[in-house]
Amino acid sequence: MNDTALLSGGDYAAAVAAAVEAAAAYYRDGSTSLGDDEYDALLRAIAGYEQAHPGEVLEQSPTGKVAGGAVQGDVPHSVPMLSLDNVFSEDELADWAASLERRLGRPVAAWCVEPKLDGLAVAARYRAGRLHRLITRGDGLAGEEISHAAGDVLGLPAVLSEPVDIELRGEVLFTREQFDRANEVRTAHGALPFANPRNGAAGTLRAKDRPYRVELTFFAYGAVGAAEEELAHSALLARLAELGANTAASTDAAPVRCVTVEQVQERVAQIAALRAALPFGIDGVVVKADEAADRREAGNGSRAPRWAVARKLAAEHKVTTLLDVEWNVGRTGIIAPRAVLEPVVIDGVTVTYATLHNPADIGRRGLMLGDRVFVHRAGDVIPRVEAPLVEQRTGAERPIVFPEACPRCGEAIDTSEQRWRCSRGRNCQAVASIIYAAGRDQLDIEGLGSTRAVQLVEAGLVADLADVFTLTRDQLLALERMGETSTDNLLAAIGAARSQPLHRAFCALGIRGTGRSMSRRIAAHFGSMAAIRAADAETLAAVDGIGPEKARLLVTELAELADLLDRLEQQGVGTAVTEPQAPSPAADTAEGGPLPGEGGPLAGEAVVVTGAMTGPLAALSRNGMNELVERAGGKASSSVSKRTTLLVAGEKAGSKRAKAEELGVRIVSPDEFAVLLAEHLPTQG
Questions:
Q1: Residue-wise pLDDT tens digits, 601-618
Q2: Which CATH class for the 317-400 domain?
Q3: Do domains 75-312 and 588-685 have the same CATH topology?
Q4: Which fold has domain 3-63?
Q5: How is domain 588-685 classified at the CATH fold level?
Q6: Known catalytic residue: 116?
Q7: What is the topology classification, in CATH, of domain 425-497?
Q8: Number of Cβ atoms within 10 Å of the Cβ of 617
Q9: ∠ CA 421-530-445 to the nearest 5 degrees?
Q10: Has residue 586 got a pLDDT over 60?
Q11: Residue 417 gets which letter from DSSP?
Q12: From the candidates 116, 318, 635, 659, which is the catalytic residue?
């Protein structure tokens, strides 16, 4: 990338001013006018211009300065606390490693590869094993004391396991869960939400005398102390964990010692693949010379060590403009706001729309049309708008107009909960509800697709799911484009749907807070629709994966559906009975996976299926694969975790395979899995 071509002399001065302003805002209170990618690109452009015009370098330029020269501290560091240089591709990383080995005049003995945590760098000083001071990095030579915040930082022990004098260096950040909780607390106290976890951590650590407290997490990545500095970096991390400090070794992206650059590149790719699944944000992967002798010989520059580099990843946060808000009605009547954005590329994907969750969320975030906003996208997760950049408002922004009536049918809106709903509920979206219920993974009514559902509703023959089972041959033949064959086929499919197992019939109801996995779990727990309907909130909460809040919602939804359920029962739908099973104490609750059956070749196995299936399994949907796992006695989940014991990896398995390999999970192909479960495969024909 040639960034020098982007700047003229006038542009250079403006770029320096913009970079200094962005860095100052971030280190002041966690706000910022630029996303990570934009800031990195700006710094590269500035450095490129200065390399081409060395006589024109401005004194305030951020290049060569820790924290871009934006901050100063009043607590001197015992050893300079430097930043890291960045590389942005595999080739740049290989070039950096080669240049380090040229500097040493020999190969690097080994490398340590670890996640680049996206928070605020701090130094924690211990005397006789007790925390004495907590200091920010500042300008690298001196930092700001933030000891007042130490009690809110998990993973930063007040007392180490040994009475040693040591200075831990690491990153303080919000986990994703802590970030969501922090914004709930902030907005409850009338403050605007943080734009993103990284900015939130910086602002929180500096704040004093707030009427509320929020938790953060510390990850140690280094130390200052004579004995510790002679350890290999990988051994040092193990030593810090022994002392009681939290390190990345406790995560799926644990630091790994590599001997070759090829191994380094492979580990970088593995950590990048895990990014979306990690419980905290990372903005890159750090590569360090592992042995103390290599680090000592390589030395440090004015801004960064020569023996370490950050391989930056594409930003998950970008800044764009909120153009409009659309209000869409879902199949259960939920009225969901959707942000219309000025298109922005995030991690290689052009994002035009993003979720806004609910009207209360819009109010908490203080959003206005025309706002410059942070948008977050992690992996395949739907992008979401996080917060407005209030300091960039021009006065031209406009309030977001909330609907006063259902945008689909014009009826009243129930605003009693955070998620607004049409007062007609599912009847507002009868077509969508019927299409969902007839789907392959629910009642599997072949021939009842979107076109036919619209036709039936518009003809007044069907208002809800129960009406589907009252359709007659004469009614269907009277419809346009319905001949005898298609009519008979549809009636046969409707008849077959009556005998679908309990979990499919329950899933077809489209109850909020449930899906295919949770429906299987509920059906396995209760055994009959009558038992499910009779359960109170406390009984439902005992089902693995259902907490008190979801249990109350289920009770409410089942009460609303009482008439529909009565009519379905009269038609013989949902009357299948299964043998109830007690919840398993070892059940994997991370994904709400189903309870396993008794015995079978997968007894005791926690199974994840990913990628495209081939061979005997090619015809099975993902839901069908999960049901197959259950019939064989296993436990299905949609994400790989430490509890996963088996991964079925089809074509284009992607990040789940990488994570399984990292965790040492057994991996089989679809063909191998089919052989293992030959007796449980569905009959073809």
A1: 888 888 999 988 998 898
A2: mainly beta
A3: no
A4: Helix Hairpins (1.10.287)
A5: Rossmann fold (3.40.50)
A6: yes
A7: DNA polymerase; domain 1 (1.10.150)
A8: 22
A9: 65
A10: no
A11: S
A12: 116
